[in-house]
Structures are given as C-alpha cells and as structure tokens.
C-alpha cells in the first residue's frame, strides 16, 4: 500500500522502493540511516558524516554540509537526498532538486522531535519496525533524564560554538532545548539562531557556566585557560562539552540524553 510522508517544509514523499539510492548531507542523519539498517542504500555523504566510521568510510564523499560537488552528486544518481534547514543552505538544496527526484528536508528543533524523525525516515524507507525500536530507546533515555531533572539546580549558561568572533546559540535551537531539559538556560541573544556575541567581564560574572563545545570549532583546554584570563572567569565556571551529544539529533540523541543527564548530575554533586 502506498503511503505518504510529509517533510519539514510540507513536501509529500511516497514510500521509497528497496533499491532507493540515498545521499545524506546531514551527519547525524547519516548515522541514523545506518542505525536503521539502510547503509546498503547510502551512496553518498558529506566529509563531516563520520559515524559509524567502519560503515561510512567506504561511502563516497561529495563535499561539506554547506557546499557539495554537484557533478559528483549527479554521478551517484541518487533517488533521495536528505538535507536540513539549519545545516544546509537552501540555495544548495534548490540546485539539487533540479536533478534529484526527492529532496527530503528535515528540521528537528527539540529532542522530542527525534521520535517523529525516526518514524519519518524509517517509515519512508521501509524500516518502521527498527524506527519503533529506536523510539523505545529514546523514551527510556528521556524518562531517565526527566525523572531527575526536577532535582537539578537551574543554571544560566553561555554555550560557545566559535571564537574570533565568538558565536553562541539562541534559545529556540536544538542545542538550547537539549540543555533546557537539565535546567541549563542559555542566555537571551535575540532572534538570530547562531549569532555573534560580545563577551565582557560583566556578562561572564552573571553566568553560572560557560560551555565550550567540541564542534564546529573544537575547543580545548588551551581555550579554557585563555578565556579565564581574558575575562576573569573562574576555571570552575568553564566546561568543555561534547557537541555531538548536545547538537546531533537522530540515533545519537539517545546517548546525548544520557550524556547531559550524567553531566548535570555530576556538577550538581560537586564533580566537573
């Protein structure tokens, strides 16, 4: 029976055939595709699609998330290309749509959106049963987090993704909503989703934590020391955080929920 699946921009997609050829331009969804048992149909990826390594290392790359080689993509003859509103430019998606029959647009903005994402991708490509299994794993992780969240202290945090210039995340992003589950509140930065931000000693003094992410810029201990010296920030306020666990949706989000829960509990009991 023919089914219809609606993507993030309202486009309708019919259930795909078993010989569909998939290209994913979204690293977290590339991992999800593999975890759904669809790796054999994955014919292309970006250079940032690195998980699961032993599976994707043999799959051709066609560029990054912001710019792909359209000639290489065309040569792969994909039936489906999966993109994301935050990660892939619309102009690139429009160019791909000129020669690919199905451009699937995704846009999870909250961890709980993963349930719909699993069912959408799994249902579209004939892996509904596996999708439901992932939903069960997600529900378990979410319940474990939710059961302790009420006892966690609320913290005002600055989440940094870049320097020179400093860049952060708005409160309506997936990252901010993930942190909100553990009562870590990102500061108000206006309507831009990933804005530049001016940092000074007054701002830092009114924060409980400054989180330096491992992606897209891989912050390290050296950056921690530099930030502390530049803004008079106590080292105990500074924390390196695994960006894959806070920003990747798809199947990794299950581990992400466990990660942020354990991190929040550790800090609440005096760990770091």
Q: How much is the radius of gyration in Å?
A: 20 Å
Relative helix content? 25-40%
Compute the number of helices. Answer: 11
How many domains would you count in the coordinates? 2
CATH class annotation of the largest domain: Alpha Beta
CATH fold-level assignment of the largest domain: Rossmann fold
Give the amount of beta strand, in percent.
15-25%
What's a concise summary of this model?
With 272 residues, the protein is α/β, with parallel strands linked by helices. Helices cover 39% and strands 17% of the residues.
Structure write-up:
The protein is an alpha/beta fold and 272 residues long. It folds into two domains: 4-107, Rossmann fold (3-Layer(aba) Sandwich), CATH 3.40.50; 140-268, Rossmann fold, CATH 3.40.50.1980. Helices cover 39% and strands 17% of the residues. It has eleven helices and eleven strands. The chain has helices spanning 27-35, 53-56, 70-75, 90-97, 113-124, 128-149, 174-180, 201-205, 221-231, 243-247, 252-268, and strands at 4-6, 12-14, 22-24, 42-45, 80-84, 102-106, 155-162, 167-168, 184-186, 209-213, 238-241. Strands 7, 8, 9, 10 and 11 form a five-stranded mixed β-sheet that branches. The chain has a four-stranded parallel β-sheet with strand order 4-3-5-6, sandwiched between helices. It has a two-stranded antiparallel sheet with strand order 1-2. Helix 6 (128-149) runs parallel beside helix 11. The longest helix is centred in the middle third of the chain and has 22 residues, at 128-149. The radius of gyration is 20 Å and the shape is globular. The mean pLDDT is 96.
